[in-house]
Design brief:
Strand content: 15-25%
Strand order of the largest sheet: 1-2-7-3-4-5-6
Length: 195
Amino acid sequence: MEEKRMGGKIGGILGWVLAIGVGLALAAATYVGFFANCLLPSFCGYQLSPVLQRDMGQALPEGGLAVVDLRSMPEQDEAAAYRDDEGRMRFGRLCGREGEDFLLKADLSQQTETLTPDRLAGAVRFYVSGLGGLVTTLETYRLTVAATAAVYILALLAALFTRGKRRRQRRRRELVELFAFYGEKYDMEEADIDY
């Protein structure tokens, strides 16, 4: 009986750890969906940004997640990130300067973009293939992910607040079964005794 109770406690603890882990994963997915353009706080000095353009070729493939160093400006022929007119992060390679302005060109394009220093975000240090696609998908379905997270959290809170009542009901069932078992056992023992 004690082993069964101990196994139930361990199972309960593991269940709650799993439930909280899933809740945190849904919360993270909701955060990514709503803040896809600025995944990290600005004080970090770095920014993660999905690559949505194809014109950078293999240097920054579409669907990758670029790591942008906001603290440093790109060197000549280095990949750089900048904000377009809509506020989305775009990428190009630094091909020169005209006074204060930067000249950027994508690897697979001949068009040169002239940027003021305030539009240039920073140098691209590296990218992680495939994660940008995941970020873009979460951004596209962010309301669905947020609704799923809200329903999950409400179900988790309902399970938490009704836990005591369910435990009392289970304990009451166990006691009824125990009384029934010992009652039958007593009746069988009494049947063999003549008074």
